[in-house]
Amino acid sequence: MCSTLSALSPECTAQDAAEAAAARERGGAGAPEPAARLELLCAGFAAPFDLSLAALRKYLWRRPEDLAIVYRLLNPAAPARRPTIAPPPAA
Q1: Radius of gyration of the chain from its Cα atoms, rounded to whole angstroms
Q2: Which residues, in sequence order, are CB contacts of 8 under 8 Å at separation 6+?
Q3: Contacts of 45 (CB under 8 A, 6+ apart)
Q4: pLDDT of 4 over the 50 cut
Q5: Is pLDDT larger for residue 23 or for residue 79?
Q6: 54-89 burial string, b = 16+ CB within 10 Å, else e?
Q7: Rounded to two decimals, what is the model's pTM?
């Protein structure tokens, strides 16, 4: 089956694209979640999907320039580094 991300690739046939569209209409049955297929990168680190933009800026970016986030297909053979983010101090 052809995924949504690869629907424009030459290897993806019209039938594959139709099957992928039908799976999306059924609620994505059989299709992996985006977090299982993509990595969000910020400052060379894999950004957790549950972090807000403010947290990314504070804990990963740490620069005065505009925040730059890049996404790419997940490559299990060469995953991005995972950041170590300490929990905030107790108030």
Answers
A1: 17
A2: none
A3: 60, 80, 81, 82, 83
A4: no
A5: 79
A6: eebeebbbeeeeeeeeeeeebeeeeebeebeeeeee
A7: 0.52
> Helix/strand/coil (H, E, C) string of the chain?
CCCCCCCCCCCCCHHHHHHHHHHHHCCCCCCCCHHHHEEEEECCEEECCCCCHHHHHHHHHCCCCCCCCEEEECCCCCCCECCCCCCCCCC
Q: Rounded to 5 degrees, what are φ and ψ at 53? A: -65, -35
* Contact (Cβ atoms closer than 8 angstroms) between residue 35 and residue 49: yes
Please write the tens of the pLDDT for every residue from 66-77: 888 888 888 888
The answer to whether residues 3 and 31 touch, using CB atoms and an 8 Å cutoff, is yes
Q: What is the pLDDT of residues 5-36, one digit of tens each?
A: 444 445 556 666 677 667 666 665 555 666 67
